[in-house]
Design brief:
Layout (H helix, E strand, L loop, with lengths): L1 E6 L5 H12 L2 E4 H10 L13 H25 L3 E5 L4 H7 L5 E7 L5 H6 L11 H25 L2 E4 L4 H13 L3
Parallel strand pairs: 1-3, 1-4, 2-3, 4-5
Helix pairs in contact: 1-7
InterPro entries: P-loop_NTPase
Protein name: Adenylate kinase
Organism: Ktedonobacter racemifer DSM 44963
Length: 182
C-alpha cells in the first residue's frame, strides 16, 4: 500500500507521516527531498519561487508527476508499504496512480493561519528563517491553497482534513483515514 499525505504547506503532513510510519513501521519520503534532488540536478521546468495560485499549483503538480510516478514505481517494486508526503502533487495525480497501485490518501489543509502560528511552529522546512514579508505572504496564501486542495479532494472523492483547530485531534482523524481496516 502506498500512503499519500498531501496538502497545503504548514498543515502537518510531516507530523502525520512520522506518526503513520511509527504505527505501521514503514518508510517515508517527503517530496521536498525529491524536489531538492531535482534542484541539484538542475531539472528544467521546476518551480523557482513561492506561488500559491491554483494555476501555479496545478502546473507544478503536472510537471512533477512523471518524477513522482517513477518514484512510486521504484518504491512499490522494493517494499509493500510506504508513505509519500508533500505539497507537489494533487488529487488528480493520486487518482491517476491509483489505477496502477494500491493507494490510501488523505489531504490536509489549514483554513486559518496567523503569523504568530507560523513563527511559533516553524517546522522543519525553515519557515522561521524566511524574510518576514515572505512569511506574511505564506500566512495569507495557506488558507487559499487549502481551499483549493479541499475542492480538488472533494472532486476526486478523497478525504480532506482541516488542521486549523484542535490539531492533535485532527492528526488522529487523518491517521484514521489512512489506517482504517489495516
Amino acid at each position: 500500500m502506498i500512503y499519500f499525505i498531501v496538502g497545503a504547506p504548514r498543515a502537518g503532513k510531516s507530523l502525520l507521516s512520522q506518526r503513520l510510519c511509527t504505527t505501521l513501521k514503514v518508510g517515508w519520503v517527503s517530496t521536498d527531498l525529491l524536489m531538492e534532488l531535482l534542484r541539484v540536478a538542475n531539472a528544467a521546468g521546476r518551480k523557482m519561487k513561492w506561488d500559491a495560485a491554483p494555476e501555479a499549483i496545478t502546473t507544478n503538480a503536472q510537471w512533477f508527476f512523471p518524477y513522482l510516478e517513477r518514484f512510486v514505481w521504484g518504491v512499490s517494486s522494493l517494499v509493500d508499504n510506504y508513505v509519500i508526503e508533500g505539497v507537489d502533487f494533487l488529487p488528480a495525480q493520486v487518482a491517476q496512480l491509483s489505477t496502477q497501485y494500491p493507494i490510501r490518501a488523505v489531504f490536509l489543509g489549514c483554513s486559518r493561519l496567523t503569523l504568530e502560528d507560523l513563527n511559533q511552529y516553524a517546522g522543519r522546512s525553515g519557515y522561521g528563517r524566511l524574510p518576514e514579508e515572505l512569511r506574511r505572504q505564506i500566512v495569507e496564501d495557506v488558507p487559499c491553497w487549502s481551499a483549493f486542495i479541499r475542492q480538488e479532494a472533494e472532486r476526486f472523492g478523497y478525504a480532506y482534513v482541516d488542521m486549523a483547530s484542535d490539531f492533535s485531534q485532527r492528526l488522529v482523524e487523518a491517521e484514521g483515514v489512512l489506517t482504517l481496516h489495516v
